[in-house]
Amino acid sequence: MRTAAYRQAPPGDLRAVIGSTRPGSGSGSAPGPEWEWVIPLVCGIDVGGTKIALALGDEHGDVRAHERRPTEPSGDAGADLDRIAADVGGLLEKAGVARSELGGVGVSVPGPLDPERGLVLNPPNLPGWNEAPVRDRLADALGVPVFLENDANAAALAEWRFGAGRGTRHMLYLTASTGMGGGLVLDGRVHRGVMASAGEVGHMPVEWEGEPCSCGLRGCLEAYVGGRSWTRRLQRVTPGESRVAALAGGPERARPEHVVEAAREGDAFALAEMDRFNEYVARGIVALVFALAPERIVLGTIAVAAGEELCFVPVRERVARHVWPFLAERLSIVPAELGPRLPDYAGLGVAFAGLEEAGAEEADPGGSADDARDPAKRNRS
Ligand SMILES: [Zn+2]
User: Fold this and answer.
1) Residue 301 shares a structural domain with residue 322
2) What is the pLDDT of residues 338-379, one digit of tens each?
3) Are residues 192 and 316 in the same domain?
4) Domain total for the chain?
């Protein structure tokens, strides 16, 4: 089965766009099996609950133009998507780029999605977007292939291509912001699993009958290290005399960032809380290392704020104690690099990944790449 996005760009056209603009490819060597899928410019769209970020960029991460605006969902996904398509047009104009130069669009959306049909399923904070046909509506409006990922996969693809995962084949991205999200890039491709829900590392159990999680299960990693859960705990257990309480203006206002700051000053309670955070993050990582044998694990948000001494050094030590030495030796655990620029790069990462996958499918139409995405074929084999 071909995706609608793929039909938007017949193979010949896609190849022509890529081939004609590849640096130094005007003449000389014909494209062979090592064909490099390079697209000049793509547009990335990060649809957040409060803000939409659009960026026009190339494969080197050179952002030519970007734009952010409040999401302002109207309650009608079709109208919202038409407005986003108009934003893309405006961005091209602002950058002085012709529509014909746009090679594709990548969209990062919150919440679950149906990758086969290119739909967003009931995203939080986006009323009217249940089963919104994001891929096809934007592809129809813009006339280029459109690719869709959930925000965690999009962030993973962005870090992998433009950030801390550059140069690796097997990279896992974990981020503890409000919840705990993750994305798996394996063999240079995002691994989606059933209903594109692979990488939900926040709900791996780290205690069998542990803390209740917002997902309904108990003992999930997110229930220990997710920002929302940790904040709830801090407001319950922070001692009044701790530095955390002083920084927060009272235990009932304590948040993870106060823990990080107080731990840096040597506060005992804050250090114990960081130790707990590191312990649970390490438990999650150990399970992932045995399952997937990654070469790099990129940690975002709270870990980045805590930094080397408070987080990365102790997490690396704990992981090394619990995995086989040859796995630990080949693994680097590093901070995410994109930070506040992530919304610009998330959609760009999705677009390049989508175009590469489409290119690989075209190069090997009956091959494993296609089969892997097509449940009917997969079941026959
Ligand atoms: Zn959970």
Assistant:
1) yes
2) 999 999 999 999 999 999 999 888 887 765 544 444 434 333
3) yes
4) 2
| pLDDT > 50? residue 29 | no
Tell whether 73 and 85 lie within a shared domain: yes
CA 232 to centroid of ligand 1, rounded, Å: 15
**Pairwise CA distance, residues 318 & 222, whole Å:** 19
Residues in the chain: 381
Tell me the CA–centroid distance for residue 228 and ligand 1, in Å.
Answer: 12
Q: Is the pLDDT of residue 18 over 50?
A: no
pLDDT single digits (tens) 94-125: 999 999 999 999 999 988 899 889 999 988 88
CATH number at residue 146: 3.30.420.40
| Cα 158 from chain centroid (whole Å) | 7
Same domain, 173 and 122: no
The whole domain housing 246 covers 166-337
For residue 17, what pLDDT is reported?
40
List, in order, residues 6 or more apart from 156 with CB less than 8 Å away: 165, 171, 172, 173, 182, 183, 184, 185, 190, 199, 298, 349
- Rounded to the nearest whole angstrom, what is the distance from the C-alpha of residue 180 to the centroid of ligand 1? 9
Centre of ligand 1 to C-alpha 303, Å, is 20
- Say which amino acid occupies 226: G
pTM: 0.85
Instruction: Kindly give the distance from the C-alpha atom of residue 187 to the centroid of ligand 1, in angstroms, as a whole number.
Output: 27
Taking residues 196-209, report their average pLDDT: 95
251 and 152 inside one domain: no
Do 346 and 222 sit in the same domain of this protein? no
Distance between CA atoms of 42 and 142, rounded to whole angstroms? 12
Q: Do both 172 and 134 map to the same domain?
A: no
Cα-to-centroid distance, 210 and ligand 1 (Å): 11
